[in-house]
Every structure is written in structure tokens, then in C-alpha cells.
Amino acid sequence: METQEHIDDLIGKVLTGEASEQEQAQVEAWRSQRAANEQYFVQCRQILEEAGRAPEFHYDERAAWERVKSTMHAGSRSRSFPVWRVAAAVAVVALAGYAISRWYVEPIQQLSLRSEHAITTDTLPDGSVAVMNRQTRIEYAEARTDNQRRVKLTGEAYFDVRHLEEKPFVIETAEEVLIRDIGTSFNVRAFPGSDTVEVFVESGEVQFYTLRNPGLKLRAGETGIYNKSLKEFTRLSRQDPNAIAYKTKIFSFNNTELRVAVNMLNEVYESHIALRNPDVGNCRLTVNFHNDRIEDIADIIAETLNLTVEKKNDIFMLNGEGCPQ
Fold first, then answer.
1. Within this chain, do residues 138 and 88 fall inside the same structural domain, yes or no?
2. Does position 318 have pLDDT exceeding 80, yes or no?
3. 141 and 227 assigned to the same domain
């Protein structure tokens, strides 16, 4: 039978993103047993979120948990006040200290990176490598008392992680979406204006999850998508061959509409391809590019689809009569 102390420890791990799949399942089962259990968990999470907005707060985690346990035992002798209310009121303070210490206590490694109009490659303090797409921000934090390396990501980045068994690598995006490395190189796409977070695993495996959903374990070649509105995870059945094209400049188009292919190319190259006649966008393109120059790509497309190409400044203008839909 699970003790309250054991449940509190599990809740602490779940709310700070450190629980294993088995521990997350235990907490979910416990929450479903009684309405009071669910209310206890929800209050802990809500107050923890408020506490997380105060990085200057420091707390003695060990002392806090001792007070939690003593309050629970004292409350259990009173029939006039719900025990879970007493426990929640005190436990969330300990949980706040538990979580905040992971991000803010005595940082020994910190780094903030930002890419604006160019794709950039940087090495993180732990030796991992990050390739950042345009309009991307990375914040790396590692504390003296922490057992994790944590990255906050806004935008899109490819990570080649230096795997450390004793110090997991965890990425946090918007909407409490988390990606835990299990010896891996992978890509995360999490732009603020998008309703989805997408993870593609090139090698190894990752756990793709939230604090309330164990999510998916993704292996090499697999892609997972999290829908923020529906709060659901989906595993794609087919691999996107262009998932990390911004990093490799390797593109594979198979009967792809030209307008779609051009948009993908323009996201990567500084010079752009444009369509003078919009109807040309209906043409279907089947071709592969391997880190080719943009001028060569424009010429190959023009030759393949019987179009003309004209260069004006940094724009390659494709023109022709168009293709049937």
C-alpha cells in the first residue's frame, strides 16, 4: 500500500519533470482513486506554478518536507477539517522549493543563445551541440545541486547531445512540453505561433511528454507531434525526409507542388526563389538536392519543369505557362 510520504515524493518528481514512466503512471492511478486526491494534486500544481515565477525565492527542501509530514500526521487526528487541505497548503511550499532549486540555486553553467536571421551552430557548456534555425532562442542552465541539464527552447533547433547517464538532458518548450534525451541526436520545432510541438529523432531515443501525460518514447527515424489545443500526442507513420533540411541543406521532393518546395527552400537559403506566374506553383517536382547552391537549384528546377529563370538581386524568378493541377 502506498504511503502518503511516498505519494508526495512521486508528486514532487512529476511536477518537476523528473518522474519515470512508471512513477507517472502511479501518480495518475492515485489521482483517479478519489476526488480529494485529484484536488490535492491540482492545488499543488497551481501553487507551484505561481511560486515558479519568483526566482529570488530559496527554500530548505529537507526542512520543508519534514514540516509537510508532521502537518499531515497532526491533521489526521482531526475530523473537523479535511486532511488533504492541510497537506496541500504546506506541501506546495516544499514542492516550490524543490522545483525552483532545479533552475535557480547556485548555477554553475548558464548560457543564453539567440539566432535572428541566420542558422547558427553553437556548443553548449556540457559539450552538446545545438544547430539553431532562424528566430530561435535557447537558455541552458545547470545548477550545483541539480542532477539535470535543462534547456528552454523557443523556435527550432537540432541537438546532438553528449549523453551523461547521471545527468539527463531535458528540453522544455511552451505549454509544459518536455523532451528528455536518452542518448540522442534529435530536432525540436516549437515556434510560439504554432499550435504544435514537433520532435524528430535522428539517432537514439527520447521521451516526449508533459507533466500530466507520459507522452511518447520516440526512436531513431520517428517523429512525434504534440497538439497544444487538444493536449494530445501523435506518432507519425511516415518520416518527413526534410525534417532537418535547414541544418543539412539536403532536400528530397517527390511529386511535391513547386510552391511548397519553394517555400521550404526559401526558409533555408538567404537568396530566394520566386514565381512570376502563380500558376507555375501547381507544377509537381521530383528531385533531390544535396547542399547545392541556390543558383544551381533554381537552374535545375527550371530545366526539370521547362521553365525560365531570371536573377534579379538576390531573387531567382521562375516563369512559365504553368502546369495542370
1. no
2. yes
3. yes
pLDDT in tens, 19-34: 788 888 888 888 888 7
User: Crossing angle, helix 21-33 and helix 4-15, to 10 degrees?
Assistant: 120
Q: Considering the domain boundaries, does residue 263 fall inside one? A: yes
Residue 139 sits in the same domain as residue 185: yes
Q: What is the pLDDT of residue 255?
A: 94
Distances (CA, A) of 138 to 105, 113, 152, 190: 19, 5, 6, 11
Amino acid present at 6: H
Residue numbers of the domain that contains 18: 4-104
243 belongs to a structural domain = no
Distant-in-sequence, close-in-space partners of 278: CB < 8 Å, separation ≥ 6? none
Residue 197 near residue 177 (C-beta atoms within 8 A):
yes
How confident is the model over 248-275, as pLDDT tens digits? 999 999 999 999 999 999 999 988 999 9
User: What percent of the chain clears pLDDT 70, i.e. is strictly above it?
Assistant: 77
Residues 85 and 113 in one domain: no
In the chain the beta strands, taken as DSSP E runs, fall at 107-115, 120-123, 129-132, 136-143, 149-160, 169-172, 177-181, 185-190, 196-203, 205-210, 216-219, 223-227, 232-235, 250-257, 272-275, 284-290, 308-312, 315-319
